[in-house]
Amino acid sequence: MKNLNYGIIGNCKSAALVSETGSIDWLCLPKFDSSSVFASLMDEEKGGSFKIIPKRLKKITQSYIPRTNILKTHFQCEDGAFEVQDFMPRYLNPDNGGYYIPPDVIRYFKWIDGQPELTISYNPKLEYAKHDTRSFLEQGCYTQNEQGCYLKSNTRNGAYDSLYLYSSFDYQDILESSPIILTKDEFCLLSYNQKLLPQDTRRAKLKLERTKVYWLNWAERTTSYKFYNEEIVRSALTLKMLSYDKSGAILAAVTTSLPETIGEERNWDYRFCWIRDASMVVKIMTSLGHYKLAKRYLSFIIDILPDKDEKMQIMYGINGEKKLSEMELSHLSGYEGSVPVRVGNAAYKQKQNDIYGILLDVIYQQLEIYDISLEYSEELWTIVRNIIKVVGNNWKKPDRGIWEIRSENKHFTFSKVLCWTAVDRAVKIATLLQRSMYVDKWAKLRDKIHTDIHKHAWSEKRQAFTQAYGSEDLDASVLLMESYGFIHATDHKYVSTVLAIQEDLEQDGLMFRYRNQDDFGKPKSAFTICSFWLTNALFKIGRKEEALRKFHMLLSYSNHLGLFSEDLDFETKRMLGNFPQAYSHLALIETAINVSESQLSEEGVLIDIIHEKKGLH
Q: pTM of the full predicted structure?
């Protein structure tokens, strides 16, 4: 059994996963949703990877350079020591004021001591490894490195694709995986594009330092809190890497088909922008002071909804693509044999009424910050009015819900609550913009939805708001009723709902999304964000000590770098599902902020628990 012990490096154009042993096992170029260059994550034999193999290894340790997205893998060997610093370049371009974000990965080999011997296993497999990829020293280059030399890799059949590797190592040694003695700093630069300028170790080091400065400056702009700053910053840095610079879209994760349960078929492509997930990320990142990310996301929303009658989808491609056809890569064996491996996502066709409330919640947050000085406030106001028309016409109708049930529509409680949220935020926006003619009309609709939910979603038998109207099943998403202001944390109905959901859905300290049967049977893994939701809910209803201990327990289930995937196995606590997961990290940040901002965090017992976790006792 293996865990997702990977680090992520990225530059808001694409991202790579680097294993705890320093192997790049997942990379898509030139952008997040392109076909893979390395995909041994999906098939160890066929997928391709970029490994570093010391001959006399004693110990490997891995960490990020603090407050950056530069990943260090330290190799302690019997014959010496060295470090590989992996990153994708991102820094301010002084010539044009924009950012330099090439589709490149740089592996900087920092010599520390001795003469460590290693081999490099460079095995790209382009186009999801559908056909053979050949790698060769480009014709005209000699064995020894000269200016302009490189290794080229390209497909021989099927769709044409190519890749370039520049290095200070001897290219023949890389091609043949021959022994290399490290005696000084060296580099490898992997690029989707052929380079026009000579590449050398000095230039690679310069890109490393510039990228380090960029991330340090970005992290410094992140709001500080009394507790959990390290966890908040790491999660924020991870969420930033899930944003796509070109369009403003935000991805749910950088992987496809990592299974929710090993050996089963709940395997989905998450390299897209879900309106729900992205809006939640934007709200939490704004609270951390990262306003530019929010502005660019709202610009993305405006771009995908150009016309007043444009129907909003639940998700889009990272460049605003509306059709995300789903297909299976049957030639790949899947993560630990979990098939199918899917690209594309048919869920884009689904109807989910909760997306409107989550988006309007973010629009209200931004307009509240900027008032009408926001450069596209008029476009946003048009979107607000159009969304309320849609909500008014659809809130009574069933949908597929937050969990994207593929087989049937239901009157999901969470969807209804978020329809209420949409209208509530619209009322607030209209008030903010002094558009009183809309306030009374929308307030009546808001109250009507509120009454309907209390009437049809509450179960006297369960003493809880249930998953859907007329159902006795419970659902973790209902815990968010309080977060969106639908109900107060002290309301006996909410308190009772939280405790009923905990009793019904919690197992071994982790949470099911729901327990009832769906398209693929009963869920078998814990959904990480739901465990954070429960922690938050317990904290808000006054069970602070229990919530805090639960929070620390959850933090201990991250991988060695503090990263989370989508799911956790109840028994083993191994991470499952796509990785790293935006949902999980935004929920971690929200919980950390709630705990840190609580006036009651000064209570002795809570301080003791926090210090105990931090190792201060």
A: 0.95
